[in-house]
Amino acid sequence: MTRLEQVSDLQPSYDVVVVGAGPAGMAAATEAAAHGLEVLLVDEAVSPGGQIFRAITQTPLRNREVLGEDYWRGRAAADSLLASGVHYLPGATVWHLDAGLQFGLSVGGRAAAVTARRAVLATGALERPFPVKGWTLPGVMSAGAAQTLLKASGMVPQGRVVLAGTGPLLWLLASQLVAAGHPPTAILDTTPTGNWRHAVRAFPGFLRSPYLAKGLRLLMRVRRAVRVVPGVTELAIEPGASCAAELVFHRGMRPAERMAADHVLLHQGVTPNVNLANAAGCALEWSELQACFRPRSDAWGRSSIEGIAITGDGSRIAGAEIAALRGQLAGLDAACELGRMDAEARDKLAAPIRARIATYDRGREFLDRLYRPSDHFRLPHDEALACRCEEVTGRQLREVAALGVPGPNQMKSMLRCGMGPCQGRLCGLTVVEAVAAARGVSPADVGYYRLRSPVKPITVAEIASMPRKASDEKAVLRV
Ligand SMILES: Cc1cc2nc3c(=O)[nH]c(=O)nc-3n(C[C@H](O)[C@H](O)[C@H](O)COP(=O)(O)OP(=O)(O)OC[C@H]3O[C@@H](n4cnc5c(N)ncnc54)[C@H](O)[C@@H]3O)c2cc1C
Prior knowledge:
By secondary structure, the protein is α/β, with parallel strands linked by helices. 37% of the residues lie in helices and 21% in strands. It contains 20 helices and 22 strands. Strands 1, 2, 3, 4, 5, 6, 7 and 20 form an eight-stranded mixed β-sheet that branches. The chain has a five-stranded parallel β-sheet with strand order 9-16-10-11-12. Helix 6 packs across helix 9 and helix 15 crosses helix 17. The longest helix is centred in the C-terminal third of the chain and has 19 residues. The two termini are 31 Å apart. It binds flavin-adenine dinucleotide. Flavin-adenine dinucleotide (FAD) binds next to helix 1, strand 5, strand 8, helix 5 and helix 6.
């Protein structure tokens, strides 16, 4: 692997440019390079690993028990990347991609345009918004953020730590905190009790998947060490008098209960990070089962735009194992498309990979059905900041949606929601769900924000730093 540091280290073009060095991106880049292609792998993080293997090559944690073997398996993926012919640019943000396969990226305060013959987006997942009252208070953060602090800095929250929400990651973090010797005080479980009825039909598949044993071990470890409060149907967070926060929650018709906390860690699942694909013009589709939008893609990850493939959790939430396997498929398909092998050879190499994907996929539907967050918690509380960038409240969203606004783009022009630095990452789904609820239709009928470049904030100085050639002049004007 060739580690690049700055824009001047970049070539003007590559055979394949992969965005995201998580399990999917590392696999796609390593596979494509193994077939002799010139591959650039770009990631915002300073080291490879993505979300699950965050800081795998430099974590301060030494006790393997804390994060568990699933995490340490990332070392092999990172080592394969390090041993590959990939050009790797860490600490760089990709803020533009178009149908001409031209990328705009920034690193170290300077920007550059790079073209590719094939683009592979492995931009991963984001935590779903959880717009309850008080989710922006000091002492409140997402479970994923707390886990990133644990992986990258070996830090654990002190004092009374309450986890609230639903989803595998919430239980995983709880078990990691228990293993670190800092068990959370409690878990307020917002998993709708009715979900079991919907999930049971997919239970046989789960029983035959690799997730069963792992899941049971994890749940037993947590339930032995942490108070679990099931069936939470209403949740609000208030500033505490003698603590950072006070959780106020209801379980069905029972009277309100309160719980003091120094840290509140919220989580209700992950959804594909669609921003770059959306701004590049890739078609999105609504998944009712996973209650989120995702880029439309085929069995090789090919999107609706010729030459752009989307893989990993950025294309469909399916977990790290499947993300890596589908990354490999995207790498194989790039090698085939760019003439390094014929379709027959590609399909032969892909067959065992697809078989392994099928094994893991057996358990997916059960997890999606069991941990599907309630409609109630996907809609914003009136007093919650639904759009944190532009400070738009749930009440404002409802009032404007009640005017019969057709979709999120109109909400954006009326309320500025989605116009801030996060470009709708934290409010997109909430705004869509609020409009869908007001119109009494599915989010599929409402659609998502129509995003444009730059999908991440860049400075004028970065744009001004881009090289000037006649073609660049034209390219810059096109951005
Ligand atoms: C906060 C969080 C923590 C998680 N922790 C776990 C866990 O511990 N265990 C588990 O099984 N699953 C975990 N998951 C689920 C996770 O989605 C998958 O397990 C797995 O990491 C998906 O792999 P991926 O390669 O598709 O994406 P990711 O691993 O998410 O990698 C995507 C990479 O793309 C980069 N990227 C995105 N956009 C850009 C851009 N515009 N420019 C440059 N770089 C970009 C990101 O920095 C990231 O490194 C977590 C998810 C989240 C959101």
